[in-house]
Amino acid sequence: MIWLGLALCFSGFAALCLSMDTHHEQVFGTDAPDGRRLLLRLLGWPTLVIAVFACANALGLSVGIALWAGQLSIAAGILVLLLAYRPRLVVPLALTAPPLALLPLLFR
Amino acid sequence: MKVRGFRQANAWLHNWTGLLLGWLLYAIFLTGTLCFFQNEITLWMKPEQHGSHPDAGSAERAWATLQRLAPTAEQWRIQLPGERNTAIQVNWNEPGQEKRHALTLDAASGEPLEVRETLGGQFFYRFHFQLFGIDYMWGRWIVCIATMLMLVAIVSGVIVHKKIFQEFFTFRPGKSQRAWLDAHNATAVLALPFHLMITYSGLLLFMYMLMPWGMQSVYQDDTRRFFSELFPRDPVEANPAPMQNGVPLTDLRPLLDEAERHWPRGVGSIEVRRPGTELAVIELRELGGDSLLDRGAGERLRFDGTTGEPLDIPPQADGGTAKAVYNVLTGLHLLRFAGVEMRWFFFLSGLLGTAMIATGLVLWVGKRLPKRRKSGTTPFGHRLVEVLNVGTVAGLPVAIAAYFWANRLLPLGLAQRIDWEIRCLFIAWALCLVHPLLRSYRRAWIEQLALASLLYAGLPLLNLSLPDSHLLTTLAHGQWLVAGMDLTLLALAALFGLAAWKLTRLPSSAVQNPTRKAPQEAPI
């Protein structure tokens, strides 16, 4: 659950950051079309919120929120470094991270 | 007098609070970050404990050892091995003596271990809130004021940062000043919730020192009574302890089984009052509770020491909402409750904070280089900032490495061994502060970073000379507590090495005299 929280933070931030023209260009080479920009925002914010529940589920509400705040920082930090050095990895990682984090939960 | 705009005023405030306290805050933040792994560092610095492998029978072996060594004690405490320690810590006091005897026991044999004297991670813990070498109250006041000014610097920094949302994810690596500003902004903004939480809760921990008036007006000068009411302990029974009459204690195993039925995490510690009498009481405490509200103290179970019958526990006084809030915030700062993943998240956030301060300090010099170059002179103040930057940002990690090396190399029987370890740290740091005086800014950076890299990489290698501590055995035994520290040291060595190498590759113009004007920048 802890890792799911981190993965969701990463994916949520990735969506939000791709909804910004500068970063969309870094990854795709063009500005984001209006429709896609809106879609990415609509995906990004709820994903960040869902991450709180993953953390709270794992550790209870009080510690969960603290953990979530830490995970937001670290997810955004990873994203910033990827954008600077390996922008092509952002989309594949954002799509695969949450399912990968769910995998261990299936095999318990 | 020139009237400044709101943003410029904040920029001025941010520059000068950041600069004047930057070096101190860097030291506080770095040592504080290490404290998230305080116990792990202490364990790593006591290699004699690395061969101690706990199993299900460890508690009973400690029990037997105490019955042999301290049958007449008034009270025993047994700290069992947990997620963060491999050995058993026991202590007891003999009747009529204030001083407690303490021993470390091997979890596999129950025999006492000869552990080298060291303060371990505790040194960083004490240093980060009361510094060292000065009266501790002075140290606390200094740290306190620095923390308040850190809050000021954070808030003014947010105001100064024009494009906090547009540039949320922005980092443009390269040679220019821009990259440093991006890095400073990114480390600050990304970990902003963490920074605010850690500085604010840090201040709360000092609350009774900063604002004692409420406490003093109600309790006059009896602050001890205030704290005992706020954090109550169980009343000590007034009736005098009966004579030791060798009444045997009950068997521990059934009590442990009972406790483990209640607590999935298991038992953390055992306390026995008046062993060897018919009034003996055994109290078991849960291993690290996870509620922030009680600062992770965990639940307790109490048994009659001779019959093993369960006893009632006096109810804990409920402190109300204000105390709960205090406990939650300070608990977050101290990270008492946290599991290992959580520790890593906070550790990385702490490193981000340390990086924020370091990049800010480097920026201060960089921003003023073009002007210096134009005028062709280096003001004394700027040179001083350069020297302090290298000597602190790179010098403190070197000094910490020296502390670890001293822990391994100083003779075991040395008198005042603990003090000597700490002296080594400060001698190394002093040398690191002198060294940049003799070298150019850039050479000093490269040399100290390279030295840090060598020192950190050498520590895991040095461990090869110890039987139970090197990576080959710790990884084979799955002893991640010790192996994790070695691996972290190697990672740090790689990081410092990379930084040094990058600097050598950088054309010297980018460091010494930037000719290219950076694009439009926020006023930092």
TrEMBL record, chain A:
This is Membrane protein. It comes from Azotobacter vinelandii (strain DJ / ATCC BAA-1303). The chain crosses the membrane at residues 38-56, 63-83, 89-107. Keywords: Membrane, Transmembrane, Transmembrane helix. It comes from the Bacteria. Pfam families: DUF3325 (PF11804). The keyword Membrane applies.
UniProtKB/TrEMBL annotation, chain B:
Keywords: Membrane, Transmembrane, Transmembrane helix. The chain crosses the membrane at residues 12-37, 138-160, 181-210, 344-366, 387-406, 418-437, 449-466, 478-501. Pfam families: PepSY_TM. InterPro entries: PepSY-ass_TM (IPR005625). It comes from the Bacteria. This is Membrane protein. It comes from Azotobacter vinelandii (strain DJ / ATCC BAA-1303). The lineage of its organism: Bacteria, Pseudomonadati, Pseudomonadota, Gammaproteobacteria, Pseudomonadales.
